[in-house]
Amino acid sequence: GCARFREAAAAFDAGAGQNGPAGIAWGHAEAHYWVGRCAQTAGDAAGAKRAFARALELEPRFAAARQRGGN
């Protein structure tokens, strides 16, 4: 659930700039996007905005994060 998305986002941030196994670098922005979705569902608009903004910082063309309010 949402706790796992927060854990994943934090783990990605802790290892920022490092690729995963076999050089795979996907999932970082997506983890923050899902943290934002969870925050929206919980009624935390400010937390959602921060998470979507972080997703866009990592992946500027992430349309779903932009549509959700990441600007």
Summary of the model, kept short:
The protein is 69% helix and 0% strand. The chain contains 4 helices and no strands. α1 (2-14) runs antiparallel to α2, α2 (28-41) packs antiparallel against α3 (45-58) and α3 (45-58) runs antiparallel to α4.
Number of strands: 0
Shape: globular
| Strand portion | under 5%
Unreliable runs: none
* Mean pLDDT across residues: 86
Radius of gyration from the CA trace?
Answer: 12 Å
Summed up, the helix count is 4
Query: Major beta sheet, specifics?
Result: none
How much helix, percentage-wise, in residues?
55-70%
Structural class: mainly alpha
SSE succession: HHHH
How far apart lie the N and C ends?
25 Å
Task: Describe the 3D structure.
The protein is an all-alpha fold and 71 residues long. Helix content is 69%, strand content 0%. The protein contains four helices and no strands. It has helices spanning 2-14, 28-41, 45-58, 63-70. α1 (2-14) runs antiparallel to α2 and α2 packs antiparallel against α3. The radius of gyration is 12 Å and the shape is globular.
